[in-house]
């Protein structure tokens, strides 16, 4: 079903909350369902992407309408097009239940869960629901998996994220060798990026299969993503990588009450990020309107001041995959165009920076992604 075709299904005694963004967003809507219904004094039905159905199935008494992902995920405009959509919760109408859809991205502060609580105007200590249903591993899939190794000697590795940076090939290969040295076989599941890795078993599982496998294997390694949010309560042993300390502070499974046992690791120590990557990340944040020009100016000065002016990657510190990333390429182009802007102190930096005519670096764009906090 397409989103524009749901109007005949809308009942006048129900609130309809649309979740057009990431898997983690849909999970948190389910977790806050009772608190939201108590506040509204009414029943909520979720409008979700078809690919998110397995998340709704984890919770009891959760009604939903699933629509095709195309033209719905990340599309705030589609929710402004139809008369059956309202920017406040209204009986019989669809409410876009995400800050980016109603121009309230300023609520993204402190951490992921807190941001949603503030956005919905809920009590700070409202009850957070946990899933009731454990994902079941299909017998056919289990038989296929156990040909590789017993479940308790398997590590499911999910290296991709739609919100933050995916893990690099060099980094994953290092983990694979370490896991195999400790007697584990590694299963890699990817949706987009093609990795060329040795001594790993590649599978192409859907979300339901992925959750069931993650709940039954000995270990799960992943980058921070909606998958990590959902699997946190089920995984026997979970390791989650975050691209930066800023991402860890915002998305931490422990801070967001998703897990007390997960091992959480920021990959880049503050102050050690390659200058080109750091500059590029700042420029992209400004282009997405995540930061103001004045914050861009200040953070850019700090980056130049505290990071070596080096446009060469060092393989021992920075994986070669770094040069493939959008932030690195953009930052490298900026540095090569402008050189060292801090040679003559902060006043000269401000004057030189404001005088740059590199319009391609500063063109601001509408941001369709959800809640991507600054990585600096």
Description:
This protein has 376 residues and is an alpha/beta fold. The chain contains 15 helices and 10 strands. The chain has helices spanning 23-31, 33-40, 53-56, 78-81, 112-120, 139-146, 169-181, 207-214, 226-231, 245-251, 275-287, 293-306, 326-338, 345-355, 359-362; strands at 14-18, 43-49, 63-67, 94-96, 154-158, 185-189, 201-203, 219-223, 238-244, 263-268. It has a 6-stranded parallel sheet, with helices on both faces. Strands 3-2-1-4 form a 4-stranded parallel sheet, covered by helices on one side. Strand 5 (154-158), helix 7 and strand 6 (185-189) form a beta-alpha-beta unit. Helix 11 (275-287) packs antiparallel against helix 12 (293-306) and helix 11 packs across helix 13. The longest helix has 14 residues, at 293-306. It starts with 13 loop residues before the first strand and ends in a 14-residue tail after the last helix.
Going across the major beta sheet, what is the strand order? Answer: 7-6-5-8-9-10
- Helix percentage: 25-40%
Radius of gyration: 22 Å
Output the helix-strand order: EHHEHEHEHHEHEEHEHEHEHHHHH
Largest sheet composition: 6 strands, parallel
> What structural class do you assign from the helix and strand content?
alpha/beta
Globally, the shape reads globular
Discrete helix count? 15
**How many E-type strands?**
10
Unreliable stretches (pLDDT < 50, length at least 5) are 311-320, 366-376
Task: State the end-to-end distance.
Answer: 40 Å
* Oligomerization status of the protein chains: single chain
On the 0 to 100 scale, the average pLDDT is 84
Strand content: 5-15%
């Amino acid at each position: 079903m397409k989103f524009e075709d749901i109007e005949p299904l809308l009942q006048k005694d129900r609130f309809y909350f649309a979740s057009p963004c990431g898997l983690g967003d849909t999970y948190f809507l389910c977790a806050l369902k009772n608190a939201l219904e108590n506040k509204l004094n009414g029943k909520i039905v979720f409008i979700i992407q078809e690919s998110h159905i397995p998340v709704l199935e984890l919770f009891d008494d959760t009604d939903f309408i699933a629509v095709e992902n195309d033209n719905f995920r990340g599309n705030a405009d589609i929710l402004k097009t139809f008369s059956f959509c309202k920017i406040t919760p209204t009986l019989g109408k669809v409410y876009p239940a995400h800050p980016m859809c109603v121009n309230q991205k300023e609520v993204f502060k402190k951490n992921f869960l807190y941001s949603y609580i503030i956005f919905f105007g809920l009590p700070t200590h409202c009850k957070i629901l946990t899933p009731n249903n454990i994902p079941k591993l299909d017998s056919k899939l289990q038989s296929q998996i156990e040909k590789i190794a017993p479940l308790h000697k398997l590590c499911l590795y999910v290296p991709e994220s739609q919100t933050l940076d995916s893990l690099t090939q060099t980094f994953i290969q290092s983990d694979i060798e370490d896991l195999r040295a400790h007697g584990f076989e590694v299963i890699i599941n990817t949706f987009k990026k093609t990795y060329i890795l040795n001594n790993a078993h590649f599978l192409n599982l859907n979300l339901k299969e992925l959750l069931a496998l993650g709940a039954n294997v000995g270990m799960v390694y992943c980058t921070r993503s909606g998958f990590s949010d959902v699997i946190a309560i089920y995984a026997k042993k979970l390791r989650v990588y975050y691209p930066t300390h800023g991402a860890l502070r915002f998305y931490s499974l422990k801070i967001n009450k998703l897990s007390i046992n997960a091992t959480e690791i920021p990959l880049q120590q503050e102050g050690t990020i390659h200058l080109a990557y750091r500059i590029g990340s700042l420029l992209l944040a400004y282009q997405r309107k995540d930061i103001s020009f004045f914050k861009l100016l200040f953070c850019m000065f700090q980056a130049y001041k505290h990071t070596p002016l080096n446009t060469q990657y060092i393989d021992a510190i920075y994986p070669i995959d770094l040069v493939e990333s959008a932030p690195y390429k953009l930052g490298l182009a900026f540095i090569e165009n402008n050189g060292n802007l801090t040679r003559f102190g902060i006043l000269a930096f401000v004057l030189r920076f404001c005088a740059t005519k590199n319009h391609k670096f500063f063109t601001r764009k509408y941001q369709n992604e959800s809640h991507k906090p600054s990585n600096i």
